[in-house]
Amino acid sequence: MLKGNALVGQSGGPTSVINASLQGVIRGVQNCDAIETLYGMRFGIDGFMAGNMVNLSTQSDKVINGLSSTPSSALGSSRYKLKDEDLPKIRTVFEQHNIRFFFLIGGNDTMDTIHRIENFCRSNGYELSGLGIPKTVDNDLFGTDHTPGYPSAARYNALCVQQSGRLARDMQKVDSFVIYQTIGREAGWLAAATALARKEEGDPPHLIYCPERPFNKDEFLKDSRACIEKWGFVSIVVSEGIKYPDGTPVSASEGQDRFGNTEYGAMSGSSAGLNVHRILREATGLRGEFQITESLPMCAVDRAEPEDVNRAAGCGIEAVRLASAGETGFMVSITRNESGKFGYGKAPLSDVAVRAKEMPEEMINGRGNDVTDAFLTYARPLISPLPEYVSLEEIQ
């Protein structure tokens, strides 16, 4: 049985519940005899290689208890792409600090990082238990029912569209359309979640476009005009990564990050939402609004789902349990049984690393401008009911 110290880090963009997972790791280590001291890497793997660590075993109860209600990444994050030449140095620092347990909280690029480090150490005679803890608002990790952070971000976007939809409805004589853009490079889970804002027929959003389906400009204009004719306005949600049929990003972005992912939003100098706004404005001559929240759903702890917080912490606790039991090379996963009860499992890091889980075909309608009941059945248990609003009665 391995014994020694442990290291935990946070990587990539945060979620509103990422610190709950860190809290779970700390609590798990407190009840683990195999781990002596838990260190936290400051600002990701590159911060760790520079010797930037904090002792998490000496943190006060006030700090630990407050993590689950604290936004952003408490340890600091990075988007450093691990190089092969970094691996020997990391192994040496592990050995210097007797680190035998390694936890990283992040998305698919992060799972690739821990997978490569765990593989290198094992192949070079250094005993190490490496476990990934899932995190991403995009909900695009393989091997898990959903990722911690997605339910809270889904609620954030659904609330935004529910409330801004009221604004759009009541301002339709001024602005005939509104475009709302969500995060989602390769997968449309967050854009799809805005469908949960609907209470009655005609409620926004009217049209939803996800990266899994090509964006057809002519069909979009036809459908938008039909909504305006029927409802007096149109509410449109687009995922940042939508593409034309030839594969060109609607955002017109050509930039890439360190992992080779296309840059969208502010980093690209353009956006899908703004370009869709331009297409509709130029084709119709109508005035419209656009709303781009960018990274705000990643840190809105005031809109965090309580069960999302609990499951995020549970993933941290489960990672420590698996590591102390001798498991390595896995990411903790969230499971859902036939009765709808959630639990924990594990997925091989090799199955998760550097892959994006798209929405299943059956969750998007045939025209590619909305979700189906299959998605709503999947998503509704993840978020608590949205507010009920009133409308004036038509009384003469």
Model description:
By secondary structure, the protein is of the alpha/beta class. The protein has two domains: 195 residues, Rossmann fold (3-Layer(aba) Sandwich); 176 residues, Rossmann fold (3-Layer(aba) Sandwich). The chain contains twelve helices and eleven strands. It has a seven-stranded mixed beta sheet, sandwiched between helices. α1 crosses α10, α4 crosses α5 and α8 packs across α9. The protein is elongated, with a radius of gyration of 22 Å. The N and C termini lie far apart (78 Å). The mean pLDDT is 94.
CATH architecture type of the largest domain: 3-Layer(aba) Sandwich
Shape: elongated
Radius of gyration: 22 Å
For the terminal residues, how far apart are their CA atoms? 78 Å
What structural class is derived from the secondary structure elements? alpha/beta
